[in-house]
Amino acid sequence: MVISMKLHATRDEIDAVCAQIHEFGFKVHSIEGEERVVIGVVGRGDVTPALESLEGMPGVEKAVPISAPYKFVSREFKPYKSQIKLGSCEIGGDEFVMMAGPCSVESEKQIMETAYAVAEAGAKVLRGGAFKPRTSPYDFQGLEEEGLKLLKKAREATGMSVITEVMSDKDVQLVAEYADVLQIGARNMQNFALLKALGKAGRPVMLKRGLSATVKELLMSAEYIVAHGNPNVILCERGIRTFETITRNTCDITAIPALNELTHLPVVLDPSHATGKRSLVPALSRAGVAIGADGIIVEVHPCPQKAVSDGAQSLEIGQFRDMMRDLQPYIALWVKSRMTEMAVAV
Length: 346
Ligand code: PEP
Ligand code: MN
Prior knowledge:
Elements: E1 2-5, H1 11-23, E2 27-32, E3 38-42, H2 48-55, E4 60-64, E5 84-86, E6 89-91, E7 97-101, H3 108-120, E8 125-127, H4 145-158, E9 161-165, H5 172-178, E10 181-184, H6 192-198, E11 205-208, H7 215-227, E12 233-237, H8 255-262, E13 267-269, H9 271-275, H10 281-291, E14 295-299, H11 317-345
Parallel strand pairs: 7-8, 7-14, 8-9, 9-10, 10-11, 11-12, 12-13, 13-14
Antiparallel strand pairs: 1-3, 1-4, 2-3, 5-6
Manganese (II) ion (MN) is lined by residues 103, 273, 299, 309-310.
């Protein structure tokens, strides 16, 4: 449940409410806001008696139960979109965030060339995998820490923020030392040990939807991270597995507005993994902007024919530049509608 305190409720009133919450056997999960404090409460069992008692206390405006099983990521908990700082930019606000870069970090030359080019074209976040989840154990597994160092170099040279994948709870601290955003791959969406460790990572997390995960399962996984202490979670639709074979995955484009109804977390579209084909990436990106994603994460490589992973779906640098140019009118409309939404939220 959520307890909204009255404007300027006193410290003593807030403390008394927290004490009463404990008295009923529930836990205070979070206390947010300065002028108007909102207290998030967790626990098991019937909340009705606690709700009635708390609502009568001095300083309490209202107490409302959250019916969704994903409590803290739900729109019921927070009616307006969360804005999350990603190093030098912010997602969830009035800026459409473009994240771009190779599937894998391969060499200094490859990552630096890509970073300069995508930054110049307008991308704010550089992507690149140093730890790669590969279907075959014989495929390139990533440069690991060496790759993280190259990403750091590219970040220092361009001023971009960096997003990179972490595959194991054991590596969370290491990757957090180098990256601005931790990417959780589709195959790890329900790696619960990893999700719990991310609660203490001290970095925003982008959680990708699992290959056969429902929207609700994606939200439950996000809830794990938030419940373990990290409210800065971004969700990513990257296509799901269906009977269709024309594309690598099937993009569940409806998941984006559906998520926007169900959660306050920012939502990103990955048109590269969703399609597996570079020719389809610009059209799907336009759809992502139009349907209300907060950003796009796209694979770009200076020479996709030579890429060690996902070459077929990676845009060449010139194609990325063209796509950015062609997206501009769509992004302009997006900004207009986002500003209207944000004005209502104030
Ligand atoms: C990737 O971003 O390169 C990746 C492996 O993505 P996913 O986890 O969505 O397959
Ligand atoms: Mn990839």
